[in-house]
Amino acid sequence: MLFEDVAVRYGAGPNILQNISFSLAPGSFHFLVGASGAGKSSLLKLMYLAMTPASGLVDLFGRNIATLRRQDLPALRRRIGVVFQDFRLIGHLSALDNVALPLRIAGLRESEIRKHVTELLGWVGLADHLNDLPATLSGGQQQRLAIARAVISRPSLLLADEPTGNVDDVIGVRLMYLFEELNKMGTTVVIATHNDRLVSRFTHRQLRIENNTVRAFDPMPPNSSQARPAIATAGNPAND
Amino acid sequence: MAWRRSDLPLHGDPAARFLPWILGFLVYLSALMVGCSLMIDQLADNWRTSLAGNLTVELPIDPTLGTKARADRLDAVIDLITATPGVTGATVLEHAELERLLRPWLGDTVGELDVALPTMIAVTAHQDAVIDRADLRNRLTAIVPDTRIDDHGDWVDDALHFLRSMQALAVFLVILVLTTAAATVIFVTRTGLAVHQPVIEILHLVGAQDSYIARQFQTQSLRVSLMGGIIGTALAVLTLIAMKPVLGSTVLDMADMGEDRGVMAGHGLMQGLTSGLGLTPWHWAALAILPLAMALLAMLTARWTVLRSINRSL
């Protein structure tokens, strides 16, 4: 993924993000951090192809997203797993059917789907809730369900918006281990969070949103109270 | 798989809940009109067939002739007619029958009037017989001057024109009903798209193509229109069966009208008309196709609506 001098705005409003330049190498793991309202979700929207940049270049899997045709989108989106902050589970579908959705859309056989989904739901601790509707699950369970749906198809790129916001630290760390497992298998992972305590437990690089732009940082040393800037400004993709 | 389950809860939409009933009613109307149109078609064929080749010969009164001379002349005419190739019979109408035919014009006192009535002969012929009317008339005129021959063409033309007009009206109404059905499906589909926009967005974001989403709507439309269509067609068939006596009465009135014009009496017109009032197995098969046609229309309309309406989200 390559961002070059990207600006983001909604409609005719002002730029909420600008001068954004960075790249994510395949198989890398990044935290996207910043204060609430800084623009983390907007940046993620660009990454999961829900909006286009106001200016600049966003290159995803070798494709400029501004020039994509509508019929090109589904194939690219199937390579991206997204954990939404508000989960966006489908209320009338069971836990199993929610997680199975990406596989069904991809056209897998029902027997394979059931096998994979059951296994993954067991891994995230929802084995006893296969047929439950999302509304009957707790916030934490819904979040794990949303994560399971995002990772079920082993995407090339996983984007998660506050994926541990509704779970306790133990479950949160366990989910992070799940993301790391996926990362070890080659998935590029971007986790948007404002949970500094969670970020400090891992040594992954950070994309920090400050003053309407994005700066890349090296991992925070265990005994340091502040992250060490990797580059003065996040203007050179080659530095990331 | 997509036929068994749906990612969108379309069956629960308030607008969609009435769709089977609306489409069922529209199919009911269509089936009635198609059924009537087919009946009319069958009727017209039977009329043409039953009247084909039949003639009415009218011999004017010659007051100068005596009774025996008239009888001899009539015998000669009958002999000539029955000797004509293709003719199967010739029947002289009784005086009472002629009075009955004149009663609508002259009133119930027609029998008391001192009016000389012409002799009417009903001639029946093979359906495929070709009788040279001009030649027959020339030969009859040689026996009875001013003889008239009527093959009922004017009446049949008028009646068939009326039936064809009714048929055209039925076809127009069917087109109108199908257009209404398509418009209803478009409305319900667009409502569904608006109501389920959040779910559709999720489907798109997890990689669904527009056709995947369209398939959910078209499957639902197919299902409900088929259900409504079958019910509507079944009720229409029952209605057509129940309507047959009423239609039969109307057709008999038309037959009376034809007979009252004094040109077709004695040709078994009644039997020809009423026996035509029914549907053949092919017609019933055509009616059975109607719910399938409606389902296909609803399915394609829903698909077209979804593919056309989904906006570019990127």
UniProtKB/TrEMBL annotation, chain B:
<dbReference type="InterPro" id="IPR004513">
    <property type="entry name" value="FtsX"/>
</dbReference>
<keyword id="KW-1133">Transmembrane helix</keyword>
<keyword id="KW-1003">Cell membrane</keyword>
<feature type="transmembrane region" description="Helical">
    <location>
        <begin position="20"/>
        <end position="40"/>
    </location>
</feature>
<protein>
    <submittedName>
        <fullName>FtsX-like permease family protein</fullName>
    </submittedName>
</protein>
<keyword id="KW-0812">Transmembrane</keyword>
<feature type="transmembrane region" description="Helical">
    <location>
        <begin position="226"/>
        <end position="247"/>
    </location>
</feature>
<feature type="domain" description="ABC3 transporter permease C-terminal">
    <location>
        <begin position="172"/>
        <end position="308"/>
    </location>
</feature>
<dbReference type="Pfam" id="PF02687">
    <property type="entry name" value="FtsX"/>
</dbReference>
<keyword id="KW-0472">Membrane</keyword>
<feature type="transmembrane region" description="Helical">
    <location>
        <begin position="282"/>
        <end position="302"/>
    </location>
</feature>
<dbReference type="InterPro" id="IPR003838">
    <property type="entry name" value="ABC3_permease_C"/>
</dbReference>
<feature type="transmembrane region" description="Helical">
    <location>
        <begin position="168"/>
        <end position="188"/>
    </location>
</feature>
